[in-house]
Design a protein that fits this description.
- The chain is globular.
- It is an alpha/beta fold and about 300 residues long.
- It contains 13 helices and ten strands.
- Helices cover about 45% and strands about 15% of the residues.
- The longest helix is centred in the C-terminal third of the chain and has 17 residues.
- The strands form two sheets. Strands 1-2-3-6-7-8-9-10 form an eight-stranded parallel barrel, surrounded by four helices. The chain has a two-stranded antiparallel sheet with strand order 4-5.
- It has a domain of about 170 residues: NADP-dependent oxidoreductase domain (TIM Barrel, Alpha-Beta Barrel), CATH 3.20.20.
Length: about 300
């Protein structure tokens, strides 16, 4: 008999996402016409990347509309993909003239209005995943839980998560409504969540995190800081030994964590998508993982 069964870790929470998620943050900068956007979505799907990450504010509130135009032109795509979006940030923008300053808003009215706008822009009747984009100091947990339940009952949102929340903030909302993911930054140049309890909490709760900026905004590949140069040297060494490339190794470093993180790409390049997908099949040794940690930190582990 297992005397520790009552202490078992939670079962993984179902999030319904592909092992790699295509980030759409910069789509408005890509200059793609609608047919090229369709081709990009189809190419992602062909590589096993069927989930797409959005936020209402991306592209100055324009990206979801661009993506939705592609779905309207090729309506069969919607059944083959999962759509995630985020809300809770109010930007000063000509698209939102009522916003006087940049602020956070997690009121029920704002969440419902944001979801409805996202559904309209994306030309869909539901989001597969909705995240609160940033922690709001005025967050009312009971209010958010109630509006999440309303959205779920209405079929507008299937599942919920958080983005950039501290472990305490995540636990607070998770106590009222089940959260299936936490979207956080992680790379050899951004290691905080490894040590502040965020990923410990994810592992305990069975929450598979989504990782933004797994290539440190491209600094791992082209940055010239001392930290980036140290990490890139290690990436090149490991890539040579594994007959791989440095981007794939960098993604593999993220994927090596036992929470099975889901990297979010931020590229229109299908080659870049393929590198992220290849990383899900490349398991770094513990020594190589720690070598990259040490290169980023500029010191060995304590």
């Amino acid at each position: 008999m297992n005397t520790h069964s009552s202490r078992a870790l939670a079962r993984p929470r179902f999030h319904g996402l592909s092992p790699v998620v295509a980030g759409c943050w910069r789509m408005a900068e890509w200059g793609l016409d609608v047919d090229a956007r369709i081709a990009w979505i189809e190419a992602c799907i062909e590589h096993g990347v069927s989930s797409f990450d959005h936020a209402d504010i991306y592209g100055g509130y324009a990206v979801e509309t661009l993506f939705g135009e592609a779905l309207a032109r090729a309506p069969g795509l919607r059944a083959r993909i999962q759509l995630a979006s985020k809300c809770g940030i109010r930007l000063v923008s000509s698209a939102r003239p009522a916003h006087r300053i940049k602020s956070y808003d997690t009121s029920a009215a704002h969440i419902v209005a944001s979801v409805d706008r996202s559904l309209h822009a994306l030309r869909t009747d539901h989001l597969d995943l909705l995240l609160i984009h940033r922690p709001d100091p005025l967050m009312d947990v009971a209010e958010i839980a109630h509006v999440f339940e309303r959205l779920q009952r209405a079929g507008k949102v299937l599942r919920f998560g958080m983005s950039n929340f501290s472990p305490g903030q995540f636990e607070l909302l998770d106590s009222a409504v089940e959260l299936v993911t936490q979207q956080i930054e992680l790379s050899p140049l951004s290691r905080e969540v490894l040590h502040d309890g965020t990923l410990d909490q994810c592992q305990r709760l069975g929450v598979q995190p989504m990782i933004w900026s797994p290539l440190a905004g491209g600094r791992l590949l082209t940055g010239d800081s001392a930290e980036a140069l140290r990490v890139r040297a290690e990436l090149e060494r490991i890539a040579g030994e594994l007959h791989s490339d440095i981007a794939t190794v960098a993604y593999a470093w993220v994927c090596r964590h036992p929470t099975r993180p889901i990297p979010i790409t931020g590229t229109r390049r299908i080659e870049g998508i393929a590198q992220a997908v290849a990383a899900t099949q490349l398991r770094l040794s513990s020594e190589d993982w720690h070598a990259l940690w040490s290169a980023g930190a500029g010191r060995p582990v304590a």
